Amino acid sequence: MPAGGSGATVRTRSLEDLVELYDLRISLEPEIAKFVTQGAMRRDIDALRTLAEKMAASSSVPEWMRLNFDFHTTLYKLANRPHTEHFLKNLLSLVQPYTQTNIEWLGGRNRADDEHAEMIKAITDDDPEKLAKLFVTHLVAARDQLVENFEAEDKDDPLLHLRGFTSTTPS
User: Fold this and answer.
1) In terms of C-beta density within 10 A (0-12 exposed, 13-18 middle, 19 or more buried), how is residue 148 classed?
2) First and final CA of the chain: distance in angstroms?
3) What confidence tier does 8 reach under pLDDT thresholds 50, 70, 90?
4) 65 near 113, Cβ under 8 Å?
5) What is the pLDDT at residue 13?
6) Residue 164's pLDDT is what?
7) S-S: 128 plus which of 8, 37, 41, 110, CB 3.0-4.6 Å?
8) Closest CA to 32 of 145, 122, 141, 140
9) CA neighbor of 56 nearest in space, from 123, 119, 110
């Protein structure tokens, strides 16, 4: 057991974690695009559209985050691949602190809202290739904006610690 405690560790958000988690999503999400388009019924598309409209209209970051989580988990469920859905939900949960930073501090919300609308259109058009590309575009844009923010932060910036980030860079 480690000295001085129960063995519990507090994990802070890091650049390494950010890149790994987004890269995993970038690898997995495009793989479900054809299953999402095959599995989507009219009521599912309407549900996604309602979530996207509520996100766009929301003035609350916590509400937007909850709706965004619901939007993505709805997409995963439509694929009807329960093991993949489980992994993707876990990854989505793990990136929530990063997503919040992107939305609340880095101005990524409007872009995300626009990309969600494009995803819905790809599903409506039964275009799995377009949906797969949109998944990648959506995730790469968020990851790159967050990485750029990490790299721009000064290691001694107190806001970095207040937001729970470490300023180490990958080797």
Assistant:
1) exposed
2) 29
3) very low
4) no
5) 75
6) 56
7) 37
8) 122
9) 110
How far apart CA 3 and CA 6 sit, in angstroms, is 8
CA proximity to 19, closest of 160, 151, 114: 151
> Which are the contacts of 108, defined by CB distance < 8 A and separation ≥ 6?
102, 141, 142, 145
> Which amino acid belongs to residue 81?
R
Q: How much is the average pLDDT of 128-148?
A: 97
Could you tell me the two tokens for 75?
Answer: 């997409």
With beta carbons less than 8 A apart as the criterion, state whether 40 and 146 touch.
no
Residue 154 has pLDDT above 50, yes or no: no
Q: Crossing angle, helix 42-57 and helix 109-124, to 10 degrees? A: 170
Positive or negative CA dihedral for 112, 115, 119, 124?
Answer: positive
Whether 68 and 55 have beta carbons less than 8 Å apart is answered as yes
> Rounded to the nearest 5 degrees, what angle is found at the Cα of 88, between the Cα atoms of 35 and 141?
90
Report the distance separating Cα 65 and Cα 96, nearest Å.
8
- Contact assessment for residue 75 and residue 119, using Cβ atoms and an 8 Å cutoff: yes
DSSP conformational letter for 13: B
Residue type present at position 54: K
